[in-house]
Amino acid sequence: MGWEKDLIDVPECPSQSVLVHAYLISNDENKALQLAQLEGSLGWQLKDNPQPLFVAYCFARATKQISENLPSSLKRLWRETLEKTCEKGWEESDFQVFPLEDVQKIYNDLFLHSRNLASKKEKNSVSSTITMR
Questions:
Q1: Which band of pLDDT confidence, cut at 50, 70 and 90, is reported for residue 92?
Q2: Which of 67, 48, 47 is nearest to 57 (CA)?
Q3: More confident residue, 98 or 99
Q4: Is the pLDDT of residue 12 over 50?
Q5: Are 53 and 24 spatial neighbours (Cβ–Cβ below 8 Å)?
Q6: Is 43 exposed, middle or buried (0-12, 13-18, 19+ CB in 10 A)?
Q7: Contact predicate 37/25, CB 8 Å
Q8: H or E stretch including 44?
Q9: Partner of 75 for a Cys bridge, out of 3, 44, 60, 70, CB 3.0 to 4.6 A?
Q10: Per-residue pLDDT, 5
Q11: How many Cβ atoms from other residues are within 10 Å of residue 20's Cβ?
Q12: Domain residues of the chain, as ranges?
């Protein structure tokens, strides 16, 4: 025995779900949209389809709330989508690619950050309007 059967050096392409997570977390929503547009309108039950995550993300981000404060139906959609995209693609395994709680925390931080940026822009807009008068 040796290392001859070790596949550590074999390149592997990340799944569409992992890519869309990477794009969304890095605030590259245009690339996430392009990736989601490549898929057909059917197949939302497939774990590798990026469309459900992108759509749920857009709805959740539009509320400017963290996941715990989302409306119940959107909270359920968001949670189910994250669960599906964080699982490894094997039906017989409960192994997760990355822990769901960690992913949830990352998105909550992202949503909070975007909400804070939006409120700063609002304040700057109001203060520039006041100084213009």
A1: very low
A2: 67
A3: 99
A4: yes
A5: yes
A6: exposed
A7: no
A8: none
A9: 70
A10: 65
A11: 25
A12: 16-132
Number of Cβ within 10 Å of residue 47's Cβ equals 18
Of 6-15, 28-37, 54-63, 69-78, the range with the lowest mean pLDDT is: 6-15
If you search the block for the tokens 């949503």, which residue do you land on? 111
Does residue 24 contact residue 32 with C-beta atoms inside 8 Å? yes
**Is the predicted pLDDT of residue 24 greater than 60, yes or no?**
yes
Burial class (CB in 10 A: 0-12, 13-18, 19+), 90: exposed
45's CB contacts (< 8 A; 6+ apart) are none
Average pLDDT over all residues of the chain: 78
Query: In whole angstroms, what is the distance from residue 50 CA to residue 21 CA?
Result: 9
Whole-structure pTM value = 0.71
Residue in 77, 84, 80 with CA at minimum distance from that of residue 17: 84
Q: What is the DSSP string of 68-108?
A: GGS-HHHHHHHHHHHHHHHB-S-TT---BSS-HHHHHHHHH
Here the tokens at position 121 are 């822009």
